[in-house]
Amino acid sequence: MEIRTVGVVGAGQMGNGIAHVFALAGYEVTLTDVSAEALEKARTLIERNLDRQQSKGAISAEDKEAALARISTTETLTDLGPCDLIIEAATEREAVKTAIFEELVPHLAEHTILTSNTSSISITRLASRTDRPEKFMGFHFMNPVPVMQLVELIRGIATDQPSFDACLAVVEKLGKTAATAEDFPAFIVNRILMPMINEAIYTLYEGVGSVRAIDTSLKLGANHPMGPLELADFIGLDTCLAIMNVLHDGLADTKYRPCPLLTKYVEAGWLGRKTGRGFYDYRGETPVPTR
Ligand code: NAD
């Protein structure tokens, strides 16, 4: 089955990047969000990021204009009904995702493949709440989407081969590389990455090191391009906490216990870069550690 039209649900950090890469690869994209402001911001950001690619010589001015012309936005979820492929990239809360699928499913074409960009929630469980578990998959992009090469493809227990093959062909057309993961909590990348970030937060919580010492240690001592706390702020602390909770609940092992300090930051609304404050304060010229 050839996919030409793509609906993206959620225009946050991930949704705007997903719309960007699909439009640049020639797909017609409809982007939706409950927030008109998020849609506005996404458009501005996509344009700015395309500009950056153009100034680096990665794309031409015509590529940029054509990509922008392929993206339409709507606040009405059901406008996505005719799309060949749906990628849900709304907030990492199961109730939010399930409500989206329940509203959208009666409007979908029979052939439509439904996917979620969830970082951790069970694909099989999400699929079971739809009318098409065999056409349901995890389509997990990394942040920032236009830059990161990997896409994790996750099969639910019922996912059929034609749907998997169609998604794999899409990843190839996007010029990205797929890794296939089985449907267990947080899949591959976050199963490994998030406990490391959580451990870095424990290291801060227990006073072993400061924010700067921890990030410098992993950058210069383990050759990581970003420190774990910097990375947590980049991902979003609400998303990090949600993933740790999925690991803790799904695998029932205390080694996945979310650090209380992570919970406290989320309770404060200090969610990282997207809210201007997290382990660093981003409101000034340069980021300043908050502890
Ligand atoms: P975000 O907070 O930046 O954006 C979420 C967006 O979803 C918001 O704009 C919000 O208005 C919108 N939304 C909420 N409810 C909605 C609804 N009912 N219908 C339509 N839109 C709705 O979050 P994000 O970082 O873009 O994460 C989105 C998804 O991508 C999550 O499932 C997350 O786990 C996953 N993900 C995130 C990262 C990351 O690094 N941030 C990486 C890979 C995957």
Automatic annotation (TrEMBL):
- Matching InterPro entries, A to Z? 3-OHacyl-CoA_DH, 3-OHacyl-CoA_DH_CS, 3-OHacyl-CoA_DH_NAD-bd, 3HC_DH_C, 6-PGluconate_DH-like_C_sf, 6PGD_dom2, NAD(P)-bd_dom_sf
Boundaries of every 3-hydroxyacyl-CoA dehydrogenase C-terminal domain copy = 187-282
Q: Does the keyword Chloroplast apply?
A: no
Q: Could you cite one Gene Ontology molecular function of this protein?
A: NAD+ binding
Spell out the residues of the site Important for catalytic activity.
Answer: H140
Domain of life of the organism encoding this protein: Bacteria
3-hydroxyacyl-CoA dehydrogenase NAD binding domain span: 5-183
One annotated GO biological process: fatty acid metabolic process
Keywords in alphabetical order, please. Answer: NAD, Oxidoreductase
Positions contributing to NAD(+) binding:
G10, A11, G12, Q13, M14, G15, D33, E92, K97, S119, N143, K274
Q: Which family does it belong to?
A: Belongs to the 3-hydroxyacyl-CoA dehydrogenase family.
Q: What is this protein called?
A: 3-hydroxyacyl-CoA dehydrogenase
What is the native source organism of this protein? Limimaricola pyoseonensis
